Amino acid sequence: MVGEGGLPGGDPVAVVRQFGEQVPHSRDLGMQVLAMEDDQVRMRLVPQPWLLDDDDAADLCSSVLYSLADSAAGLAVYAATRTLTPIATLDLRMDYLRPAAGDRAVVALARCLRFTEDVALVHCEIRSEGQTQPVATGTVTFMRNTPGQLFQAADEGDQRA
Known about the structure:
The chain has helices at 12-22, 24-29, 62-81, and strands at 31-37, 40-45, 87-96, 106-115, 119-128, 136-144. It has a 6-stranded antiparallel β-sheet.
């Protein structure tokens, strides 16, 4: 049964949580959806030893922050639109402001700033729990409504490179 805004069951928070837990990459990294309100999503990740920069480092690998921002931002699009349509990340720009300590969880707050039928723009801030200053910020652009064939093969007579 389809509920509010085309979401199954009518509970968008439950759908977003379930979606976040079923994405293998997010699940393997240990990402958890904490909240979904209006046009934003909060996600949390508890660092594991294998997510640190190297064996001697005490900081979280920056690629983990990148993955957290992408996941939280994608779910923020669903929070804002209240529809489960396919999306694809077009661009993700991150500013790493300071190292994320590997001994505390990090929380991403992603907010969908604007969306159209074709594109969504999201801002994301990542903070270490208990800290007031962000460790990273990002801007993510998504293509929306991406079903079907996206590219067509060129004619055999077409000489474009």
